[in-house]
Specification:
Largest sheet: none
């Protein structure tokens, strides 16, 4: 079972609206969800994304699910006619991307997310330089 489903999108948009946008083609919904997950995975270089996105049901992080939903809807509503008002969806997606950047910068540390295991053999790295000199002419 995928991490995010069409049923998860219905927390922010009605099923009838999804069907109207996609003209009943669930492949478009799946493509938007996959784009959102792929985009989010790019932010999580410190976390084990395979283990994180293998979770299902109530084991999933609700903030991550909400962020992925917002981004997936933004990808999905690109197919909307030009006269449709999708400003709120785009604002939600922008907010979700800000949260993803904060996770990436370690400003936000989600509880319970699996970290990538450190390498077994740690290498020592030391860097130094000569003392700063003042040149006077």
């Amino acid at each position: 079972m995928p991490y995010l489903t069409k049923a998860d999108l219905t927390t922010d948009i009605y099923t009838e609206d999804i069907d109207a946008i996609t003209e009943g083609n669930d492949n478009d919904v799946t493509a938007a969800i996959n784009k959102a997950i792929g985009e989010a995975q790019g932010y999580f270089d410190r976390y084990d994304v395979d283990a994180l996105f293998a979770r299902t049901g109530d084991d999933r992080d609700p903030i991550l699910v909400g962020s992925l939903t917002a981004i997936a809807l933004q990808w999905l509503t690109r197919k909307c006619p030009a006269n449709q008002n999708v400003k709120q969806i785009r604002d939600d997606a922008a907010t979700a991307r800000v949260w993803l950047r904060r996770v990436q910068a370690a400003e936000v540390k989600p509880r319970g997310w699996p970290l990538i295991a450190p390498p077994e053999k740690a290498t020592f790295f030391h860097m130094s330089s000569n003392p700063k000199r003042g040149n006077h002419f």
